[in-house]
């Protein structure tokens, strides 16, 4: 303006959006105050909404409400109301925001989907999640159409809970109502499946991410670095990093993700080159930068190199945090230094750690790697101690996590009849590996053979019997006329042995057992024979009564 050039509304909006992304709220407020004061153009509702947003963020809700009353009446419309509600939600004032939403309904102003997005996020914690269906019902009542961002938030909540079934259900609902998923949607799906070690599905979603990408979005490229690291795709990882380097400003976060991705696929030399490059270009200013390299060395058991980075961290004035000690504890375990590992683990536990860190994927995966080592050693005590951390974060929904814990019991030759109950009630589905381990625990509690011995084909009914023991009892009438037959929700009798694997519902009996023949017929056990002791009455407990083929 001093040089005689006009300032257009578009220039201001572009500057405000950039300042918001950089979280420079104070500077953004100064810009909007200047616009209202100097009037380079006639302010409209969007200008006042920006002014209201940043005033509330910096000076609180009371100042925001006072400013709202000072805005010209013609601009006190749906946009300003929606921004006021969002500002209240940003401050965590749910009750006040609901009052303004009620006022908007009275004025017949439409409520934005962004308001409901904020409400869902505020209720995404474990204790508040039951409220989300009510929020979605109110959203429908207000005739607010769910935006793709709404579905992305719902999918992210399920992914954070490690609930793959819930995640896929939300995605299918999204497709059913013909809402087009974007690259963020596919990134959430791909990452969740990669963390769950469902690599085939993850690869399919990665291809969808590549197709849905709009330009060189650095956040999407960062996710691709992580995903190609999980899948071990060296060429694609190199290509993605090359694309990131073409961006004008490469963030330190991108360097850290690239280092971890190369380390995950075993390219330590490439990871070290990126580490050196980051040191020279970006400098070492945060603990997270050092943690990225420490994690790589510790995953490969290079504890001496990890210790050198740890010392360098202190030289640069960065304090180690709990994740630093967790990585070092893993490195000690990989190197066979069990005592040092336990001491390092205790040092990390003594530090204050937020739930955000404890529930983060790097923390959980590092903890699980330690459980695997303890399981191999048959150290049930330490495996259970770390397993409890994963259980609090719902990471134990994955079958492979429980299988590692069961392996600890197998190696220690300890039989715990409640293991399968814990597994199923914890949300994990037993698989073939679980069957093998429970076969060993159930039939050889005092003489467990080595896990590497070829077990051959384990009879399906033995594994089913274990499931039968853990479900609550219920009396029911059988249409076939025999007492104690398992019925599916009391509707029809089960005549196929494969259905026994579905005995996870409280509606099934746990006190009796039905024995099936290859022809599909059933017979009730003799009175007095308990389900968990039936195998003792068999002539040969290693011979399947279902024939050679398992149905």
TrEMBL record:
GO terms for molecular function: mRNA binding. Transmembrane segments: none annotated. PROSITE patterns: PPR. InterPro entries: PPR_rpt, TPR-like_helical_dom_sf. Signal peptide: none annotated. Keywords: Repeat. It comes from the Eukaryota. Belongs to the PPR family. P subfamily. PANTHER family: OS12G0527900 PROTEIN, PENTACOTRIPEPTIDE-REPEAT REGION OF PRORP DOMAIN-CONTAINING PROTEIN. This is Pentacotripeptide-repeat region of PRORP domain-containing protein. It comes from Corchorus olitorius.
């Amino acid at each position: 303006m001093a040089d005689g050039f006009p300032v257009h509304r578009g220039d201001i909006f572009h500057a405000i959006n950039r300042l918001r992304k950089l979280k420079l709220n104070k500077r953004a407020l100064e810009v909007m105050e200047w616009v209202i004061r100097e009037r380079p153009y006639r302010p409209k509702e969007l200008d006042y909404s920006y002014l209201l947003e940043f005033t509330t963020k910096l000076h609180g809700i009371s100042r925001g409400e006072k400013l709202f009353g000072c805005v010209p009446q013609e601009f006190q419309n749906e946009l300003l109301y929606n921004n006021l509600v969002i500002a209240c939600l940003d401050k965590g004032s749910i009750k006040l925001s609901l009052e303004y939403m009620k006022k908007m309904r009275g004025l017949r102003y439409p409520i934005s989907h962004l308001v409901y997005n904020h409400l869902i996020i505020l209720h995404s914690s474990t204790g508040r999640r039951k409220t989300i269906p009510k929020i979605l019902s109110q959203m429908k009542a207000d005739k607010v159409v769910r935006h793709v961002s709404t579905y992305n938030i719902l999918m992210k909540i399920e992914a954070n809970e490690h609930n793959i079934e819930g995640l896929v259900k939300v995605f299918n609902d999204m497709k059913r109502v013909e809402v087009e998923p974007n690259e963020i949607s596919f990134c959430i799906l791909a990452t969740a499946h990669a963390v769950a070690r469902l690599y085939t599905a993850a690869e399919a979603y990665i291809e969808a991410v590549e197709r849905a990408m709009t330009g060189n979005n650095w956040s999407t490229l960062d996710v691709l670095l992580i995903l190609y690291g999980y899948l071990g795709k060296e060429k694609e990882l190199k290509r993605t990093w090359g694309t990131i380097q073409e961006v004008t400003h490469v963030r330190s976060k991108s360097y850290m993700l690239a280092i971890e991705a190369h380390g995950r696929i075993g390219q330590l030399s490439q990871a070290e080159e990126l580490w050196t490059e980051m040191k020279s270009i970006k400098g070492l200013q945060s603990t997270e930068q050092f943690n990225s390299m420490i994690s790589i060395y510790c995953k490969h058991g290079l504890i001496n190199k990890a210790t050198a980075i740890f010392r360098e961290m202190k030289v640069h004035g960065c304090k180690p945090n709990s994740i630093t000690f967790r990585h070092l504890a893993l490195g000690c375990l990989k190197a066979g230094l069990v005592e040092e590992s336990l001491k390092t683990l205790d040092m990390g536990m003594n530090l204050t750690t937020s739930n955000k860190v404890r529930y983060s994927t790097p923390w959980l995966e590092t903890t699980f790697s330690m459980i695997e080592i303890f399981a191999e050693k048959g150290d049930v005590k330490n495996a259970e101690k770390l397993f409890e951390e994963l259980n609090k974060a719902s990471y134990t929904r994955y079958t492979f996590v429980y299988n590692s814990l069961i392996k600890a019991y197998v190696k220690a030759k300890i039989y715990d009849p409640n293991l399968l109950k814990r597994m199923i009630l914890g949300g994990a589905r037993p698989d073939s590996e679980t069957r093998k381990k429970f076969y060993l625990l159930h039939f050889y509690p005092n003489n467990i053979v080595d896990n590497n011995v070829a077990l051959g084909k384990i009879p399906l009914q033995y594994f089913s019997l274990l499931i039968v023991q853990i479900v609550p009892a219920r009396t029911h009438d059988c249409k076939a006329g025999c007492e104690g037959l398992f019925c599916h929700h009391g509707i029809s009798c089960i005549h196929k042995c494969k259905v026994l694997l579905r005995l996870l519902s409280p509606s099934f009996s746990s006190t009796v057992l039905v024995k099936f023949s290859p022809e599909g017929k059933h017979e009730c056990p003799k009175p007095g024979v308990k389900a968990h002791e039936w195998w003792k009455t068999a002539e040969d407990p290693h011979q399947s009564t279902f024939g050679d083929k398992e149905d």
